[in-house]
Amino acid sequence: MGVAEAADERARRESTGLVAAYLQWHVERGVRSLRLVERA
């Protein structure tokens, strides 16, 4: 965790955005898959 805290503000903002986008993609993918299972 010390490495992340030592990073400059710009790098922290960019990485936060990447993590948020990655998590959103996974959540939405799960929801779409659930609809397909419910139809079967």
Topology:
Elements: H1 2-6, H2 9-39
How many discrete domains?
1
Mean pLDDT: 85
Low-confidence stretches: none
Question: What's the gyration radius in Å?
Answer: 16 Å
Biggest sheet overview: none
Q: How many strands?
A: 0
Distance between the termini: 44 Å
Protein name: DNA repair protein RecO
What does this structure look like?
The structure is a single chain. With 40 residues, the protein is mostly helical. It has one domain. It is 90% helix and 0% strand. The chain has helices at 2-6, 9-39. The longest helix has 31 residues, at 9-39. The model has no long low-confidence stretch (mean pLDDT 85). This is DNA repair protein RecO. It comes from Angustibacter aerolatus.
Summary of the model, kept short:
This is DNA repair protein RecO. With 40 residues, the protein is mostly helical. It has two helices and no strands.
Features:
40 residues, mainly alpha, DNA repair protein RecO, rod-shaped
